[in-house]
Each structure stands twice: as structure tokens, then as C-alpha cells.
Amino acid sequence: MISIHNEPQPTDLGDVRVANRAVVLRHVRLHAPCSRADIAATTGLNKATVSSLVTELLDRRLVRETGLTGNRVGRPATMLVLDGSPYAALGLQIGADDLVVVAVDPGGNRLLTWRRAFPAPTAGPADTVRALVTLARRAIGRVTGQGRTVLGLTVGVPGLVDTAGGVPLASGLGWRDVPLAADLRTALRETGFTVTVDTDANLAVLAEQRHGAYAGATDLVHVTGGVSVGAGVLAGGRLLRGGRGHAGELGHLCLDPAGPPCPCGRRGCLAASTALPAVVARLLPDATQDGPVTDYLPELDRIVASARQEDPAVLAGLAEIGRHLGHGASILANLLNPEAIVVGGHFATLAPWLLPAARAELVARTLAPQAGGCRLDASTLDSAAPALGGATAALATIEAGRLPAG
């Protein structure tokens, strides 16, 4: 399983070369264009070690030279930037009404983003695995056709994920005890790369930490908005997983024991009031008159249109949902004191009408003054954030200093 770690440091223990390679890669990622001398001066590695490591990374095309700079004392220096053009990493996510795949290279450049309409909450695990595999194979075919080697694939699920990549419970999907990672590996057969599973919230916060408005933050929460509600938590630069990988189930905190029923079997959960199906049911009572909703985008568009037209019932409903969201955020603020809580999915789409009430509730319910400095904002990433985070997570082996095979 993937974790975000604090900045790697040179070490004399374990595999020194791997650790030092990670130091060099991180420095180039954060400070490119930079020279070998810059790397040595900043990291404390000696110049001979840096030169040897850079030669190795150039040979594997993980970094490349961009020419000389004379903007310094002494001789012009050859500058380095990340390359990674021979490689790709894939992330997939299971949404309320679609599957998404994203591919990125080690430099963080997005190579593709594909969506496929798919009613996962009614499809069942077997059909979902088949659809994921079909989408993954198409993406693999595209990037390998460009001459790239796939480094890894990570799938984001709106539910509990254990340390083996199984899904003990995903109430929004109606899943119990699904060995998703094992099923995917079997269906994909011999891939030559790692296949892992994580919660969509964990992957979304990795995307935020790398690509979002709070890139580089070490204490950050992403709250997913979709078929369920989860929290991906970075604390001190590390992904908070818990003892068995089940941390972050914000959506199943009980806010009102007499509240509406939740798909998990309890009442009054945050998800029962704020998850996408609950929002559509609350604001568009006619949405299910012809059967269950399988495409939520038109319904969200209807809600946005009504809010812009200042429909009183819709505005009141959005304010109430915002207060519930703020209540959940206050629990996170009291427990974790993050720098920011970022909301994604339908929460981001509806942010102009949700966040005023949510921010007021956050401040009112947080013990520390002004919510302990915690900001509550909408994600600036698109709805593919978990898939983008999955692709980012699939790069972890390379970023930890392990060279790709070959």
C-alpha cells in the first residue's frame, strides 16, 4: 500500500544507494531545473555520489539534461529536469455513475483521462471488475503503443479497503468482502507491474498534495463527494491509514441517531444526508420517478441551474446539506487540526451554495478559535482526482529510489 513520506534523507543504513537516489529524484522534482552542484549543496550528498546517481537516472531516462546556464559564478552548469517519457502509471476510480482512468508519467504530466459511463452501485462486483479490466487494458494499450512501460496501477474504491486490497464493505456500492485486488490481478494476468487498491479518499488526498491548490501541505484532508463520503488524511506528511487500513470513514459518523437511514444499515450518518444519492433525493424528489438514477451529471446540472435561479427550496436544502458537511468538517478539525479540508466531487460542484453554511458550522463547532486555522475549500482538481491520485501512488516505487525493470 502507498504512503506519502517525509522528505527522504541520505542514510548510511539499509540500501544507501536506493535512499540517495530517492533524495536526488525528489530534489529534481521540486527544484528543476537544477544542476548536479545544486543537488549536492542542498542534499549534503558528495559531488561524486550525485554525479554517479544522475548518470544512472539519465541512462534510465528518469531525468534529462536541458542545456547550460551561465547565470552563476564559475563555469556554466548543465541543468536537469525530470523526464520519465518511457514510463507511465495508471490510476482508476469507481464513481457513482462512471469509471475513470488516468495515466501520468513520472514528471506528473497527465497522458490521458478517460471516463466510461457505468452504474457501479447496481452492477455488482463481478461486472465492475470486468469493466475496470476492459478500461485498464485500453489505457495500457494506448501508453504501451507510445513506447512506454507501465510502472503500476492503483484503483480507488468508495469504501473500506484492507491491507491486502480487499473491500470488506462499500455500502454505497452494496459490496461486502470483495477481494478486489486479487480479482484484478487474476483478470489482468501477468502484467509485469504492481496492481493495488486503496480508498478513493486516500488517493484523492495524494492528488491534492501533489497537484492541488495545497500542493506540498503536510497536514491536509480531502473529503470525497460521490456515492459515499470519505476522508483522506495526511498528518505530518504521512497518509493516515489506521491499524487495518480503515481510517477515514467520515461518512459513517452518526450526526443524528434519529436521522435518515443510511445504506450501511444505520441512521443519521453524514453520508445519509450529504452523499450524492442523498443530495439528489433531497433536492430533486422527482429524480427517481422513472427508476433509480444511473447518471448523476444531469441531476447535478438541474440542481446548479435551480440554485442559480435562486429557487428557495433548493437554496434551503443546500444550506442544510452545507451545515451537515460543516459539522463533519468540525470533527476532523477538532481531531486532526489540518491546514485545510478540501472537498471534491459533487461538494466541489455545489461549493458556491454549500460552503458558506459549512464554513460557519465549522467555526461554530471547532473548539480552537477560528477553527484552529483550518480552511475549508473546494478542490481545484476535477472529478478524476482519485484516479489521478491512483496514478501518483503507482509511481511510489520509482520515487522511493527503485529503478524500473529493464
Distance between the ends: 23 Å
Identify the strand order in the major beta sheet: 6-5-4-7-10
Sheet/helix structural class: alpha/beta
Tally the beta strands: 15
Largest sheet: 5 strands, mixed
Helices and strands, in order, run as HEHHEEEEEHHEEEHEHEEEHHHHEHHEHH
| Helix share, percent | 40-55%
Count of alpha/pi helices: 15
Shape descriptor reads globular
Note the beta-strand portion: 15-25%
Gyration radius over CA: 22 Å
Low-pLDDT residue spans? 1-7, 10-14
What is the typical, i.e. mean, pLDDT?
Answer: 92
Organism: Micromonospora humida
Pfam families: MarR_2, ROK
Domain HTH marR-type: 23-65
Protein name: ROK family transcriptional regulator
Description of the structure:
It is a single chain. With 406 residues, the protein is an alpha/beta fold. Helix content is 41%, strand content 20%. The strands form four sheets. Strands 6-5-4-7-10 form a five-stranded mixed β-sheet. A five-stranded mixed β-sheet has the order 13-12-11-14-15, sandwiched between helices. Strands 1-3-2 form a three-stranded antiparallel β-sheet. α2 crosses α3. The radius of gyration is 22 Å and the shape is globular. The N terminus is likely disordered.
List the helices and strands and how they pair.
Layout: H1 16-31, E1 34-35, H2 36-43, H3 47-59, E2 63-69, E3 77-82, E4 87-94, E5 98-104, E6 110-117, H4 120-123, H5 125-145, E7 149-157, E8 167-170, E9 175-178, H6 180-188, E10 194-199, H7 200-211, E11 220-223, E12 231-235, E13 238-239, H8 270-274, H9 276-283, H10 297-308, H11 312-336, E14 340-343, H12 346-349, H13 351-365, E15 375-378, H14 385-394, H15 396-399
Parallel strand pairs: 4-7, 7-10, 11-14, 14-15
Antiparallel strand pairs: 1-3, 2-3, 4-5, 5-6, 8-9, 11-12, 12-13
Helix pairs in contact: 1-3, 2-3, 5-6, 7-14, 11-13
Domain HTH marR-type: 23-65
Protein name: ROK family transcriptional regulator
Family: Belongs to the ROK (NagC/XylR) family.
